[in-house]
Every structure is written in structure tokens, then in C-alpha cells.
């Protein structure tokens, strides 16, 4: 009887392990592993939702907010209310914003055109605040304009409280709403849209590269924006136009910039071929003086359920994140950085080498993190493509530093482990 009990217990234990293994295999990807995740892919010609996973659940937009800042800027330019050469004054509030930033000084000025470039490359928070104040008269004034515009575009779950996306528990959106904004930007402002393809921006004697690493590395990607705060994870909206097919895809809540980018690449590869090559592409109504320019096609609320979620009906697989807590309990204070999508705390990075391939750079970073152990556990790692004289190299970089001292100390530790490195401010 004792042996029978032993073997029965053992069989039950192995059955449970086998079930958990199968459960884990059936449900890959970000769905169960990451409660912050949300994603959607929309056919930009027909409005069909090709993929959706928690696309209606509320999330923090982070620097995707700057998409709306630019939408309102484009609108004001077209209305003749402002010009790209207009001088935007820098307030004390704007100058005091945390990184990512240009380092604008109180009382200085910068043109509207320069700010626009700074937003799509450096994702500069000081420039975004200055532009928001310029458009709305104050940050609160801008927030009211932005939220009202969101509602008019059908972004029913979105509220804006600032122009940059730094933490505010009241500033929320959904992947579905961000897809609508991405569609609207390209549809309403095709004459301005090429701005989102900007690869670098020169200001104050410095050159700032784009944080959007998919532009130039994934065929057909022509924008739009990255975003990051601790409370949101790594966000990305991508527009793809290739072989007569167009999609807008949104990934929110990535654990790292690299994993977010990899997931976006997979979504593009899988769903762009499924998009239609016909359709007007007139999907989002645009409010104009005297009414609505045309009737909008509503995007479906519910898209196809990903295959890995069809495999189960358990509560854990379909858990819905409740409306975001407005107590700031899960939102960073202003110690978080911006929205670069590459680092979490400051513009300081540590580079440990450059290789001819992205995989080689990532392998170098993994070896460094493995050697350093817990010392680098909280740091992000990513490869930055650099093109010069027709040749591409990938710079292996670590991010997530609180500042210069943190970066320098980390580089010193890596040197003691045999890794050549240097610390620099992006």
C-alpha cells in the first residue's frame, strides 16, 4: 500500500509538471508573462483589425503622447496659426523637465521646426513642454486641447495631462486609441508625415539620433514613435507601407526596448501580408470649421484573438487589467526618464564595442551582463545601428543609468572584468 501511495503521488506530481509545461508552451509571448502588454495591428486601407490583444485596456502612453503634440502642431501650421520659423520661448517649467531633453535654458528660444525634429528624434521633454505651452497657453491649456482632439478622433479612452508623456496617473490611453492617432497623423497630414522618418537632428553643436530603431532596418517602416516610463514599459507605434499594403501597429508594455522591437518586427512580418492592397484609407474623421470633413470608419472594438489565447479559456489567460489606479501607487515619480525607449533613467550609456551585426552586438552585451551578474541586472541593453560611408556597424550599449557617476562606475567595473568600454551621454 505504501508503494502504491508513493507511485500515485509521483504520477500526480509529474502530471502536474507536464500540465504546467504544456500550459507555458501553449501561451508564449507577452500575454501572460507581462501584465503591461497590449497590442494591435490595423489595416490602414480598410480599417480591419488584423490582430488585437488587450487593445482596449487602459495603459500609460509615455512618449507616444508626443504624437498628439505633433498632431496639434501640424493642425496649427495648416491653419496658419503658427509657422515653423516661429520662436518658442522656454519657460522655467519647460527647462526643468527631466531627460530626455535638449538642455534648453530659461528665457532662450527655439523654433517650432527645431522642436518638431527634436520630438521625433531625441524625444526631448523640455522641447515638448515648451511647444505645448506655445500651443495651449499653458500646460493645462494644452492638455484640454489634446484631450478634446483625442475625443474628436474617436480616441474615447484617452486623456492627456501634458505634452511629453512623463508620469501622470491621469494620463491614459489604449493601444486601440494610439492606432487611431497613428492612422490620423498619416491620413490627415501626408505633407508633414515625412518628419517621422527623420534619422538625426543637429542642435547646439550636437547630433541626436532617432530612438526609433525600426526606421531604416525594417522594410516599409516610415514612422512613428517610441515611448517609455517605468509604469508603462516600452511602447512603440509603427506605420508600414510596402508593396501597396499599409498597416499601423502598436506594441505597449515591452520589458525592454529590444524585446519590444523584436515583437513589433514579428507582428509586421505576420500581418502585413494579410493586409489589403485596396481600400480608400479614409478611416478617421477630421473635424474642420463647419463640421466633419467626412464620416469616419469605426475600427472594430474586438479584433482576432491571437492563436496562443484561443488555446485556453482559463481566467488567468483572459484576465483583464482594471482601470488604472489614479493614486500614483504604480507610477514613477519624476525620477524616471523619458521615453527614449533605450534607457530608463538618464541619457548616459556605456558602450562596450561595435560589431558588423546586431546579433553580434547583443551577444557581446549578454556576455558582459553574464560576467557582471547582479551588478548589471537592472540595466537595459540594446544595439544601435550606425551607418557611415556605406558601411553599417552595431554599437553594443547598456542603459538605465541614473547619471554620469553611475555610468562611469559601471564602465570601471566592466574594465576590471576585461571588457573595454566608455561612458557617454547620448
Mean pLDDT across the residues is 79
CATH superfamily of the largest domain: DD-peptidase/beta-lactamase superfamily
Give the strand order, joined by hyphens, for the main sheet: 2-1-9-8-7
Overall geometry comes to: globular
What order do the SSEs take from the amino end to the carboxyl end, as H and E?
A: HHEEHEHEHHHHEEEEEHEEHEHEEHE
Q: Give me the CATH architecture of the largest domain, please.
A: 3-Layer(aba) Sandwich
Low-confidence stretches: 4-8, 10-29, 288-345
CATH class of the largest domain: Alpha Beta
Number of domains: 2
CA radius of gyration: 23 Å
Q: Which strand-content bin applies to the residues?
A: 15-25%
Protein name: D-alanyl-D-alanine carboxypeptidase
Pfam families: Peptidase_S11, SPOR
InterPro entries: Beta-lactam/transpept-like, Peptidase_S11, Peptidase_S11_N, SPOR-like_dom, SPOR-like_sf
Family: Belongs to the peptidase S11 family.
Report on this model:
InterPro entries: Beta-lactam/transpept-like, Peptidase_S11, Peptidase_S11_N, SPOR-like_dom, SPOR-like_sf. GO terms for molecular function: peptidoglycan binding; serine-type D-Ala-D-Ala carboxypeptidase activity. Pfam families: Peptidase_S11, SPOR. Belongs to the peptidase S11 family. Substrate binds at residue 225. By secondary structure, the protein is of the alpha+beta class. It has 2 domains: 34-310, 3-Layer(aba) Sandwich (Beta-lactamase); 348-425, Sporulation related repeat (Alpha-Beta Plaits, 2-Layer Sandwich), CATH 3.30.70.1070. Helix content is 34%, strand content 21%. The protein has helices at 2-26, 30-33, 65-78, 92-95, 112-120, 125-136, 139-152, 175-188, 257-271, 307-310, 358-372, 404-416, and strands at 38-43, 49-53, 87-89, 109-111, 200-203, 206-209, 221-229, 233-242, 245-254, 287-288, 291-292, 348-355, 380-388, 391-399, 422-425. The strands form 5 sheets. A 5-stranded antiparallel β-sheet has the order 2-1-9-8-7, with helices on both faces. A 4-stranded antiparallel β-sheet has the order 13-14-12-15, covered by helices on one side. A two-stranded antiparallel ribbon has the order 3-4. A hairpin with a 2-residue loop joins β13 (380-388) and β14. α6 (125-136) crosses α7 (139-152). The longest helix has 25 residues, at 2-26. The N and C termini lie far apart (70 Å).
Amino acid at each position: 500500500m505504501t508503494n502504491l501511495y508513493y507511485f500515485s503521488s509521483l504520477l500526480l506530481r509529474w502530471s502536474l509538471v507536464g500540465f504546467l509545461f504544456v500550459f507555458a508552451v501553449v501561451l508564449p509571448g507577452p500575454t501572460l508573462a507581462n501584465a503591461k502588454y497590449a497590442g494591435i495591428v490595423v489595416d490602414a486601407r480598410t480599417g480591419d483589425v488584423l490582430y488585437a490583444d488587450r487593445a482596449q485596456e487602459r495603459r500609460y502612453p509615455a512618449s507616444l503622447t508626443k504624437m498628439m503634440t505633433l498632431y496639434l502642431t501640424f493642425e496649427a501650421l495648416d491653419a496658419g496659426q503658427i509657422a515653423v520659423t516661429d520662436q518658442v520661448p522656454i519657460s522655467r517649467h519647460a527647462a526643468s523637465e527631466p531627460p530626455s531633453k535638449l538642455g534648453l535654458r530659461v528665457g532662450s528660444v527655439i523654433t517650432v521646426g527645431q522642436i518638431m525634429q527634436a520630438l521625433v528624434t531625441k524625444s526631448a521633454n523640455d522641447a515638448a513642454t515648451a511647444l505645448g505651452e506655445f500651443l495651449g497657453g499653458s500646460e493645462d491649456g494644452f492638455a484640454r486641447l489634446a484631450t478634446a482632439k483625442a475625443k474628436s478622433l474617436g480616441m474615447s479612452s484617452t486623456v492627456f495631462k501634458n505634452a511629453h508623456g512623463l508620469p501622470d496617473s491621469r494620463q491614459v490611453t489604449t493601444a486601440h486609441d494610439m492606432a487611431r492617432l497613428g492612422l490620423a497623423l498619416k491620413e490627415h497630414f501626408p505633407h508633414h508625415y515625412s518628419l517621422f522618418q527623420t534619422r538625426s537632428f543637429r542642435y547646439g553643436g550636437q547630433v541626436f539620433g532617432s530612438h526609433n530603431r525600426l526606421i531604416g532596418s525594417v522594410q516599409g517602416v516610415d514612422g512613428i514613435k517610441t515611448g517609455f516610463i517605468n509604469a508603462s514599459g516600452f511602447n512603440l507605434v509603427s506605420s508600414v507601407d510596402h508593396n501597396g499594403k499599409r498597416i499601423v501597429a502598436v506594441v505597449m508594455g515591452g520589458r525592454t526596448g529590444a524585446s519590444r522591437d523584436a515583437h513589433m518586427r514579428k507582428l509586421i512580418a505576420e500581418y502585413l501580408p494579410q493586409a489589403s492592397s485596396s481600400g480608400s484609407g479614409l478611416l478617421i474623421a477630421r473635424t474642420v470649421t463647419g463640421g466633419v470633413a467626412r464620416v469616419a470608419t469605426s475600427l472594430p472594438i474586438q479584433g482576432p484573438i491571437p492563436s496562443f489565447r484561443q488555446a485556453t479559456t482559463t481566467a488567468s489567460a483572459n484576465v483583464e487589467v482594471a482601470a488604472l489606479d489614479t493614486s500614483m501607487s504604480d507610477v514613477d515619480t519624476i525620477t524616471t526618464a523619458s521615453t527614449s525607449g533605450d534607457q530608463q533613467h538618464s541619457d548616459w550609456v556605456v558602450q562596450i564595442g561595435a560589431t558588423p551585426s546586431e546579433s553580434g552586438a547583443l551577444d557581446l552585451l549578454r556576455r558582459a551582463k553574464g560576467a557582471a551578474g547582479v551588478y548589471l541586472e537592472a540595466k537595459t541593453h540594446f544595439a544601435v545601428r550606425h551607418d557611415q560611408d556605406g558601411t553599417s556597424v552595431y554599437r553594443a550599449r547598456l542603459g538605465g543609468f541614473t547619471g554620469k557617476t553611475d555610468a562611469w562606475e559601471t564602465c570601471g567595473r566592466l574594465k576590471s572584468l576585461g571588457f573595454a568600454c566608455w561612458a557617454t551621454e547620448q
